[in-house]
Fold:
Amino acid sequence: MPLITRLLEARDFETLASYYDLSDSTVDRSELVSGAFFIRQDRPPAAHPGGFWRYKHPFAPGFRFLYAVPADEPDVFSVQVEIRIEQGAGLEDQVGLNEFRMVRSAAGWQVLPP
Structure:
């Protein structure tokens, strides 16, 4: 998780792309290497002011690992991440959740595109 965050913040999309398994995907590796797969350019109408909207996959920097559970496919896991935003003034933290999938194979652990 910290590695993914560092790569996203550094915009090192080529290295980040190397951690993706695209074997059963319609996503072209050039989308990953260019950053178009990871970063959204246009702000959506209901964007969070924290800037989380900029990151399409796998998660925005600031999110932390919560847990992983087996998915429906063999060797595929759903990784749950969260971010907690302190509201101050005695209010409860705001919690944001996100999920991405990873596969375990002979190549090691790799991220799967949505």
Remarks:
- The longest strand covers residues 94-105.
